[in-house]
Amino acid sequence: MAFALTIDGKPAPASETFAVIDPATGREFAQCPLATVAQLDQAVAAARAAFPGWAALPIEQRAAALNAIADALAAECDDLAALLSQEQGKPVRSAAGEIQGSIHWIRTTAGFRPEIERIDQADGSRAEIHRKPLGVVGSITPWNFPVMIAIWHVMPALLAGNTVVLKPSPSTPLATLRMVEIANRHLPAGVWNVVTGDVEIGSGIAKHPGIDKVVFTGSTPTGRAIMRDGAANLKRLTLELGGNDAAIVLPDADVEAIAPQIFQYAFGNSGQICAAIKRVYVHDTLHDALAERLAALAAAAKVGPGSDPETHYGPVQNRRQFDYVRALADDARAQGGRFLAGGEPLAGDGYFFPLSIVVDVTDGHRIVDEEQFGPVLPLIRYSDVEDVLARANASENGLGGSVWSADVSRAAALAQRLECGTAWVNSHSKISPDVPFGGAKQSGIGVEFGMHGLDEYMQLQIVRLPAGAA
Fold this sequence. Notes:
The protein has helices spanning 37-56, 59-75, 77-88, 92-110, 146-159, 174-183, 199-207, 220-229, 255-267, 284-300, 319-334, 366-369, 385-393, 408-415, 450-455, and strands at 5-7, 10-12, 16-22, 27-34, 117-120, 126-133, 136-140, 163-167, 192-194, 213-217, 236-240, 246-249, 279-283, 338-341, 356-359, 376-382, 397-398, 400-404, 422-425, 440-441, 444-445, 458-465. It is of the alpha/beta class. The protein has a 7-stranded mixed beta sheet, sandwiched between helices.
């Protein structure tokens, strides 16, 4: 299959390509076109030219285009899922779930409608609060959910009347290129453009004077760099950055009931989820029982190639992340940590690391303090609730957190004291297209999803009208 950039509604050839690696083998399986800075400029110019006409359309017409894109992606779901699985590593059924989830997200987003707010004044005049599109939005997406996160970024931008230049991760560009090609059948030329590349193109988007806003999902250091690069023209920013989510298990929790859920929310997508559980603080009275139960679940999980129907969990997506996860596991062992399951890479080709449970580690160890973004979960003992809350909040990250207890009211009260953007009770990682999601502290700026997320793609304009105005 040949792949192309999409600029101004047309396939754009590239003079150079780069290799895309199958993480199940560690070997190249495709070549991807590599955009130049000049092509980025062309994409921005196309988006700027398309902006006035797209913004002028009634929102119902823009919503209809979004729904047409959803229909088109549904028709191509199987092929997109196979491609996504090969480049990202997740099982094909999980990749299909990502495509289907993206379609659901599109349809929900297409139903949002910003309202004109009215504030009446004592003298009979009034102020109206209108929302207008910003212009050109630059989207930079990661490799863990490349299709879904592109949809999170792009659909509210388009609905609000903006045009888009998207750059996918160079580790997982292919399904995104194909998705944008499909979407452009239902959009005016220039409304949604896609270019590829690494730091040069990403930095080019952040610095570009023709881009009015950047939305980025990825690491906190890269988010800081985007803030610096975007300062020249005061770009609006939405940044969903790193997380090191803590789960606190209170002493009244039911181990048998919660173990499968904690396991699911820690190891989904092989732990490569921003808001996965990354560290579990367990009361002394439950620690050993929960650790034993989680280890049994990890040992029973099938890790393998995404193309194998029996695979539950795929490989780590790329060599760099694989080496990082391995280094954290090695450091945990050196610090006295005991692996009750996993802990060493699997033999053979590819970036396979087993689902791993480690105990006898604590705060100050890398495996606890750093975001693993991979299939290694530390369990940390505690005895005092106030102490464990302070430890959970000591991280510079604040994406999510959860409290697990038979007493929902007590758990909710504690959850509200977590310093994070989303706090769950007896759950974790669950998100919805109509509920805002974003990070606190070093985990980001702004929110995505729902009307609050849509607001991030619009500029308020206050219109003040005299008394008696219609």
